[in-house]
């Protein structure tokens, strides 16, 4: 598989996903359609209007707001998601329903918390065993999304019963370039974490810091460490869900 990250708007990412074997392409959260279509044309791949072509993580305008223009430019596109608020949606994907993009296997994972209809897309290339997770605004490098339509218990279930159950070498492609701020917050609560400190130093001069992997996130993302006694002592809570809630509240006010 080939993944092309596309910086859009102020700090968002859209993605082009290509099956290199068949040259079929799909797009994830295509908020700036002209930029995306121009890039696809340069790859030699085809955005099919017959098979799976547009995957939307959630309804927020900075992820789904380009759908109307994209469908107008490419009539007949299949627009996938799990929320009726997504513009132009014409296929509501079920949790763990499998789709194919050429030979790539795409599995929607329902992750309701940031929004009630949020979906992450897990992609496996059976030709290379490479794996990727398009995590939208659920999991970021060094952080997690705000709990707009859910709570800490919802996010705990998502993180520890869905996302961290995926293989550690799964690439994580998130919806925003929030890495530096996330890692600075993480370091403020976990200053002794040398892996975290090294990650922050690595990304300081980089405008694009994705992807990471699930295995890497387990080492420095504080929201994935709420079951560890060291993180519980830092926050002053014993219940991992309360630790997660407290960390998110602290992050909300972090500047």
Describe this entry's structure for a reader.
There is one protein chain. The protein has 255 residues and is α/β, with parallel strands linked by helices. It has one domain (2-252): Ribonuclease Z/Hydroxyacylglutathione hydrolase-like (Metallo-beta-lactamase, Chain A). The chain has nine helices and 15 strands. The chain has helices at residues 33-43, 61-64, 67-73, 152-161, 179-189, 194-203, 214-220, 229-235, 240-252, and strands at residues 2-8, 12-19, 24-28, 46-47, 52-55, 78-81, 91-92, 99-101, 104-110, 119-125, 130-136, 139-140, 143-144, 171-174, 212-213. The strands form three sheets. Strands 1, 2, 3, 4, 5, 6 and 7 form a seven-stranded mixed sheet that branches. A six-stranded mixed sheet has the order 8-9-10-11-14-15. Strands 12-13 form a two-stranded antiparallel sheet. A hairpin with a 2-residue loop joins β12 and β13. α5 (179-189) runs antiparallel to α6 (194-203). The chain is globular and about 55 Å long. The model has no long low-confidence stretch (mean pLDDT 96). It catalyses: an S-(2-hydroxyacyl)glutathione + H2O = a 2-hydroxy carboxylate + glutathione + H(+). Its EC number is 3.1.2.6.
Q: What separation lies between the terminal Cα atoms?
A: 38 Å
**Overall morphology:** globular
Mean pLDDT over the residues = 96
**CATH H-tier superfamily:** Ribonuclease Z/Hydroxyacylglutathione hydrolase-like
CATH architecture: 4-Layer Sandwich
Report the oligomer: single chain
- The counted number of beta strands is 15
The number of helical runs is 9
The helix-strand sequence is EEEHEEHHEEEEEEEEHEHHEHHH
- The Cα radius of gyration reads 18 Å
Strand fraction band? 25-35%
Helix proportion: 25-40%
Pfam families: HAGH_C (PF16123), Lactamase_B (PF00753)
Cofactor: Zn(2+)
Protein name: hydroxyacylglutathione hydrolase
GO molecular function: hydroxyacylglutathione hydrolase activity; metal ion binding
